[in-house]
Amino acid sequence: MATYPITANGFAVIKKELEHLKKIERPAIIKAIAEARLHGDLSENAEYHAAKERQGFIEGRIKHLEGIVATAEVIEPKKMKGDRVLFGATVTLFDTEKEDEITYQVVGEIESDLAKGKISVQSPIGAALIGKEAGDEVKVQTPSGVRTYEIVTVTFI
């Protein structure tokens, strides 16, 4: 069975969402379905059909998150050190084209979120960074063309 890398923080977020779905959302939708049944004919009951659809979504999400939890390989970046970019590293890059710095944390696909500065280890930039160290130049093929970055710092926080 394949395992999926995830940071300890990402794992905690997944566990929190799973607990919320099981303890709050699931009971609420069961109650909503029961109330919708009281309104009569189920074949023409929009509330019932909407509640059942929502239940399907919730149950699917629970199964998905349980699969992640069962196969997660939790990595704690704070316990790592060194100069090389590894999974969980926070990397500051200098974009030579834009002459601007940007900081990313290299995380698993499950927890990647570009808006929060978290890039997947499987993304073009994430994959290109792995194994490199501060001072290295990295060329990355992106949809908009080849981009060149210089690694400014590598930290584990």
What is the total tally of β strands? 7
Number of domains: 2
CATH fold-level label of the largest domain: Chitinase A, domain 3
Structural class computed from helices and strand pairing: alpha/beta
Mean pLDDT over the residues: 93
Distance between the termini: 29 Å
Question: Could you give the order of the helices and strands?
Answer: EHHEEEEHEE
| Spatial ordering of strands, largest sheet | 5-4-3-7-6
Taking the sheet with the most strands, its summary is: 5 strands, mixed
CATH architecture of the largest domain: Roll
Q: What is the gyration radius calculated from CA atoms?
A: 22 Å
Strand content: 25-35%
Total helix count? 3
Shape assignment: elongated
Residue windows where pLDDT falls under 50 for at least 5 positions: none
- Oligomeric form: single chain
Instruction: Indicate the percent of residues in helices.
Output: 25-40%
Describe this structure in words.
Helix 1 packs antiparallel against helix 2. This protein has two domains: 72 residues, Orthogonal Bundle (Helix Hairpins); 79 residues, Transcription elongation factor, GreA/GreB, C-terminal domain (Chitinase A, domain 3), CATH 3.10.50.30. It is elongated, with a radius of gyration of 22 Å. The chain is α/β, with parallel strands linked by helices and 157 residues long. The protein has a five-stranded mixed β-sheet. Strands 1-2 form a two-stranded parallel sheet. The protein is 39% helix and 27% strand.
